[in-house]
Amino acid sequence: MAVTTLDPRTALVVIDLQNGIVGAPVTPHSGADVVARTVELADAFRAKDLPVVLVRVSFAADGADAVPGRTEASGAGGTRPEGWDAIVGELAGNPRDITVTKHNWGAFHGTDLDVQLRRRGITQIVLTGIATSIGVESTARAAYEHGYHVTLATDAMSDLDAGTHRNSVERIFPRLGETGSTAEILELLEKTHG
Description:
Layout: E1 10-15, H1 19-22, H2 31-47, E2 52-57, E3 98-102, H3 113-119, E4 124-130, H4 132-145, E5 149-158, H5 162-176, E6 178-180, H6 182-193
Parallel strand pairs: 1-2, 1-4, 2-3, 4-5, 5-6
Helix pairs in contact: 2-6, 4-5
């Protein structure tokens, strides 16, 4: 389903656009392109006095707050460079933005994201970020389960694998909300929040 409407109280929720993630080899859009499109959306949301939520993933140096459990893929272990979990400079620094730190794939579990949104009367979120099939999809699923209307800016997200990105965009996201390009969302934002 193409993006059709934005609620009067819509927030932009940005997933993991932080120093240690945007430089990863992602597809189909480069990290720089995802950041640039997200900056366009963030500027437009701020101009309409709508919330921008910057979500970052971080773990304690000793990994004590990493998600437990057995997986076949390596998890949060290992040493990360200083500042890896800082929001990229192009998005950071606006005092009105809300920053949420997560320790899981999704931005709702174990954070105050739902409280932050509900306190502001938010009924819809627009999602961007990296990686499409991990943090973005997990957050979209939880947002849908929490009763939010979900819109996904599919050209403002990317993944480590083209197949998993495509699966999320073509098979999962249409079941959770509406999808559209950054330009389509910006045009709709201007029409509905003129």
